[in-house]
Amino acid sequence: MTRTATSAFMADVMLITLDNPPVNALSNALRRDLHEELQRAFEDAAVRAIVLICAGRTFVAGADITEFGQPWQRPSLPDLCTFLDDAPKPVIAAIHGTALGGGFELALACHYRIAALSAKVGLPEVHLGILPGAGGTQRVPRIVGVEAALEIITSGRRIGATEALSLGLIDAAVGDAILRDEAIAFAKRVIADGGAMPRIRDRTVTVEAAHARSDLFANFRKANPHRFKGFLAPAAIVEAVEAAVTLPFDDGLATETALFERLVASPESAAQRHAFFAEREAARVPDIGADAVPIDICAVGVIGAGTMGGGITMNFLNAGIPVTLVEMTQEALDRGIATIRRNYEATAAKGRMTTQHVEQRMALISPSLDLGALVDADLLIEAVYESMDVKRDIFARLDGIVKQGAILASNTSFLDLNRIAAATRRPACVVGLHFFSPANVMRLLEVVRGSATSKTVIATAMKLAKRIGKVAVLSGVCDGFIANRLLAPRGYQAEAMMLEGTPIAEIDRALVGYGFAMGHFQMMDLVGLDVIGRDAAKRTVMGDLVAAGRLGQKRGAGYYDYDEKRRPSPSAVTAALIAEVAAAGGVAGAATRGDEALLARLLYPVVNEGAKILDEGIALRASDIDIAAVLGYNWPVYRGGPLFWADQVGLGRVVAEMRALEAVHGEVFRPAPLLVRLADEGRGFGSLS
Ligand code: 3H9
C-alpha cells in the first residue's frame, strides 16, 4: 500500500505530511493513515509538537467526494477532529493552496494554523448541497461570531490568508516559500512557551454574545432569500450554527452530524455533486491527448464591440490578456469601450475591484477600425450580427490578414460553422466559441468543433476556457449547438400552451417552482421582445406585442405589465392578443393545468432533445448536456440538469408520459430512440458514462 501520510522528526517536532494527489482529499485510506501517524506521534515521548502539512499543490481540499454515498469507514472525519481535540501535544496545521471543507475543518481542530500568504481557506460544502460535517458549523462561529459564520458558511466563499488572519481563522501568514520552515519554527516557539494547546471548542465568548439576540437567525433567513430558494443546505447550516449557540459543543456537533447525514442523502446534494464532477469531466476530450499541444494565447482580437463582443473582451482583460477590439464605425467602437468601462466602474463602485484595476484592464484594450490591426493576434473572435454572408465575408478577409497558425473563432449561436470555415483557406484553424450573454458573467463556453477543426485548436480552446474562468463544453455542429437547441422545445411548448389558453403566469409559476430564476415569458420580457428573432412568416403573439410597442420590461409592458419596481402583473392587452392570435391560427385544445402537467409539457421535450443531441454525437456525454443547461440556462443546479433529473424521475415514467402526450399533441412528444432504449433496459443516462 502506498502510504498517504508520512512523518519526519525534526528535533522535538514531528512533521506529518499528507500526500494524496491531486488535492489531498481525505479519503478513507488517508484518514486511516493520518490517524496512525498521529497516534504514533502522541505516544512518542520524544515528540513535543506536531506539524501537519501537505505535499503537492494544496492542503487538504476536503473530504473525498467520490466516497459519498458509501458507508463511512472509521475513523470518520469527525472522529479525527475529536482525536485532535483530545491531543496530548500541540498540533499545528501548515496550509498552502486551498484548505477547503473537511480540510479546513481538520485545520480548525488543530491548536494552531499557519498559512502561506497565497493560501485560501473556506467551507464550500453548500455548493455540494451539504454542510460542513466535521465541526465547521460549531468552530467557525466560536472564532468569527455568528453573523460572520453564517455569511462564510452559506456563501461557501474562499477567504484569502490576509483576511483569514484578520478574522482569526488562522494564527499566522508567511511567505509561500518559507511555510514549512516557519511552521516548524512556530511549533518550537509553542514548545518553548510551555506547549499551550488552545482549542476552538473551548471558546465561548462569541456564542454567549449571540444568546441575547434571538432574532439573529430569523433575520439572516429573511435577508438572504436568494441563498435559500430551492436549496436545502443553507437552512440546515443556519440550524447547525444556531445549535452552536444554544447547545454545548458536543451536542452541537451531534446536531451538525444529523443534519449532514440528512443532506448527503438528499437528491439535491446528489444533483449538486453530479454538477461538480460534470463540470470537471467536460474538459476531457477523449481523442485529444498530450500530442495536441495547445497554442499560447498572448493576444486576442475581437471583431464587434456590441453587447456580446464587449462581454467577450472583458473575459480576456480580466485574465490579463490584451485585446484588439475592432468595429466598423468610430461611434460603435466608442460606445462599446464606454460600456466596458461602465461595467468595470460599476464593479468598482460595489467595492469588488479598485479603480487602479479598472484602469489596468482598460489599458489592455487597443481599439481599432481596421481589421489589419489584428495581424499579430493569436486568437480572433468574431462577434458580429448573425448573418452567414456577413460572417463568411469577415472570415475570408481575416484569412488574408492574420498570421499563420492564428485561431479563427466565431461566436455564432446557431449558424453552420463548417460553411463559415469554408470561406477560409485554413478550416483546420476555425472553431466556434459560443459565449452566453452576459458573456463576462455566464460560465458556459461552447467550443464548437467543425469537421476540419484541428486537435491543437480544440486543445487550445479547452485550456483557454479554464484560464478565463469558463467551463468549456465541446459541441458538434448543429442548429443551436447544445444549450440553445436543448432549451428551444421548452419555449415552443410554453407558447403552444399559451395559445391553448393556459395563462402565461401559470406557466411561468411552474418553471419558477421547479427552480428556474424566472419563467419563460418573464425571461422574454427581460431580454426584450424586439431583440428576440421572430418568425416573420406567421402571426405571433410576440410580433403583435412588438407592433403594439410592448417590448418588455424596458418599456414597462411586454407579455406582462410592469410597475415602477418592475414587478409583473397579468395584462388584459396581452390576454386579448393571445386570444386573437389563437383564433386566427385556428388553435384548438384545452388549457393545461397543474404544475406537474405543465412541467411534463415544458421539460420532457428538453430531455428528449438531450437524448437526440447525445445520440447524434453532438455532445460527448450526458453530463455535458446537463452542465450546459445548468451554466448556460440557469437550470437549477439542485436538479442536476435535464438528463440527471430525468434519471431521478425514472426514464420509464418519462417515456410513458411522453407517449400519453404524443397521443394528444402529436409527434413533438415522440420519445427519442435512445430514451426508449434506456427506458426499456431499465437504465438511465447516468449509466452511459
Ligand atoms: C467535505 O469536505 C465534507 C466535510 O465537511 C464533512 C465530511 C464528514 N474529493 O477542481 P480541479 C478532484 S465536502 C474528491 O480540476 P483545481 C476533481 O474532481 C468537500 N475529488 O482542480 C479533479 O479530478 P479529475 C469540500 C476531488 O486546481 C481533481 O481533483 N471541498 C475533490 O481547478 C482536480 O480538481 C470542496 O468542495 C474532493 N474533495 O481546483 C472542494 N476536490 O482530475 C472541492 C477535487 O479526475 N474542490 N477533486 O477531474 C475544489 O474546489 C477544487 O478541486 C480545488 C482545486 C480548488 C481544490
Automatic annotation (TrEMBL):
List the Pfam families hit by this protein, alphabetically: 3HCDH, 3HCDH_N, ECH_1
Question: Does Metal-binding appear among the keywords?
Answer: no
Give, as in the UniProt entry, the pathway in which the protein acts. Lipid metabolism; fatty acid beta-oxidation
Instruction: Establish whether keyword NAD is in the entry.
Output: yes
Instruction: Name the SUPFAM superfamilies for this protein.
Output: 6-phosphogluconate dehydrogenase C-terminal domain-like, ClpP/crotonase, NAD(P)-binding Rossmann-fold domains
GO MF, one term, reads: NAD+ binding
Signal peptide span: none
Q: Where in the cell is it found?
A: Peroxisome
- Record domain 3-hydroxyacyl-CoA dehydrogenase NAD binding: where: 300-474
Where it mainly occurs, coarsely classed, is other
Q: Which UniProt keywords apply?
A: Fatty acid metabolism, Isomerase, Lipid degradation, Lipid metabolism, Lyase, Multifunctional enzyme, NAD, Oxidoreductase, Peroxisome
- List this protein's GO terms for biological process: fatty acid beta-oxidation
Give residue ranges for domain 3-hydroxyacyl-CoA dehydrogenase C-terminal.
480-562, 600-683
**Catalytic activity line of the entry:** a (3S)-3-hydroxyacyl-CoA + NAD(+) = a 3-oxoacyl-CoA + NADH + H(+)
Origin superkingdom: Bacteria
Q: Which family does it belong to?
A: In the N-terminal section; belongs to the enoyl-CoA hydratase/isomerase family.
Q: How does it assemble?
A: Monomer.
In its UniProt entry, what is this protein called?
A: 3-hydroxyacyl-CoA dehydrogenase
Instruction: Give the organism the record lists.
Output: Sphingomonas sanxanigenens DSM 19645 = NX02
